[in-house]
Write a structure and sequence with these properties.
Helix content: 40-55%
Strand content: 5-15%
Strand order of the largest sheet: 1-2
Structural class: mainly alpha
Largest sheet: 2 strands, antiparallel
Number of helices: 9
Shape: elongated
Amino acid sequence: MECYFKRKFASTTSSSDNVGSSSSRDVGISRDAGISRDVDSSKESELQDIFANLIADPGLRPQMLDYDLNIRDEVQRAYLQKGPCQPKDHTFPQTNLSGYNRRFNVKWFDEFDWLEYSFSKDTAFCLYCYLFKSNFRIGQGCSDTFIEMGFRNWKKKDKIRQHVGAVGSVYNQSRQYCVDLMNQKQHIRTVLIKQSEQARIDYCICLTSSLDCVRFLLRQGLPFRGHDESDT
């Protein structure tokens, strides 16, 4: 190391320099903390605006990919808490299919808890697949029928059952994603909140001390090794 770095020795000037560098570092940390607070405040404001204008009609909702990745979990959770759009008192319009007037059957809501109905498009959608379509590719069995275009072939109820599919279908995987998302015990944010304020302070102290040690060793050209592994 001696051939690459010149060893520095302590002096009165270096002591004052260290004070200055420490002050500038504190200013930098404060500035970063201020920026972080501004970002959190902006994110919270955006979420509040989205929650206040959460669109119930599945035919008018923006796609989940249109939401920022950092807030997508909160938006998905809000839709799950709101529940599927199931207007059971609505008078469903009739559509002529192969010479017969057919319409959406309100009893399907009781049989398929994931089923949604769009007033604007007179079509049916799947809440679970809408929320987690972005986790799949079209080639993986992911269809747009119950997500973007909507289902309206009212004479073929079997198509609704077929959407559920086998155990590993896109629908069943999406449903499991919803269960996991709503399970607060598994949510990473809940785990982090369990840490006490003192634990976070202690962690910041250890991290700052480690960075100071690394900075000192780099400036002095000293090797990253030692013999004392005690807590102090």
